[in-house]
Amino acid sequence: MTSTHTATATREPAAPAGTHAAAPLLPSILLVGSGKMGGAMLEGWLAQGLAPSVIVDRHRDSLPAPHRIVRAIADIPADFTPDVIVLAVKPQKADPALQDLAKRFPAATLLSVMAGRSIASLKAVYGGEKGLVVVRAMPNTPCLLGAGMSGLYAPPEATPEQKRHCESLLRAVGETVWVDAEGLIDSVTGVSGSGPAYVFLLAELLTKAGVEQGLPEETARILARETIYGAGRMLHTLPTDAAELRRNVTSPGGTTAAALAVLMADDAWPAATSAAVAAAVTRAKELSG
Ligand SMILES: NC(=O)c1ccc[n+]([C@@H]2O[C@H](COP(=O)([O-])OP(=O)(O)OC[C@H]3O[C@@H](n4cnc5c(N)ncnc54)[C@H](OP(=O)(O)O)[C@@H]3O)[C@@H](O)[C@H]2O)c1
Question: 217 CA to middle of ligand 1, Å?
């Protein structure tokens, strides 16, 4: 895996959605699909300053000027050509959208955030002979707060400008890493794409364990939530890696050591985490067909 953004000691997250940072203007986009993921990214892009763009959305009624909203791909204004088409529909709903897009934009840069749809499968639907360059990205839902994590892959034919445009869109909503093989996007899916759910599960389980140890549920919920937030901030902010941070808070023979001896047993978290991520990666590959 390669990264254009190596971890630094004091990274600051991108400006959260809703703030107006003086960031460079992002490329113009045609966004198709603004549900959970597309909508989260759109909030960040609007906050960061997007070149005049068009959103195809069947649910939203308005968009701040100069952006335009249309109900269907057929309604895209004739005078509009985006720098990047962002496709954020469910994988199984992509084909009709791709067929309509191909008629309107025979040559285009397509940024796909869909899990389990290969570049080859998207190009086959679009029309292989046409000038379509597909960049794949796997973001995650903290994009909503400007704290997303996205892996990107670009095929060799992508130009530096196409890669820069796509990266700038994902950078506007969090951190980015490039991977150098398309198959690794499935691995990104297993780690960070699905990863927020693993952390939410940890919060649920920690809350339950706190209740089992006599705490009121709301108290346990706050303890779990804020512990994960604080530990996440340490990981994000400090130059120290996770294993060292763990060792730093584990006194030999102490309470944390007692808990970690249970969690770190070979058949506990190490095995469960590896199996869970492998299951997500397998599912992503199955969806790719
Ligand atoms: N959610 C995540 O955590 C996450 C993380 C990484 C990647 N992704 C990827 O993001 C994609 C979208 O996931 P999601 O969770 O955001 O799904 P979602 O909430 O269902 O959003 C998809 C949106 O696309 C709209 N849509 C479908 N076909 C359309 C068309 N032809 N024109 C315009 N809009 C259209 C849907 O509208 P209707 O409801 O009217 O059909 C819906 O609003 C998926 O491919 C997924 O793999 C999601």
Answer: 34
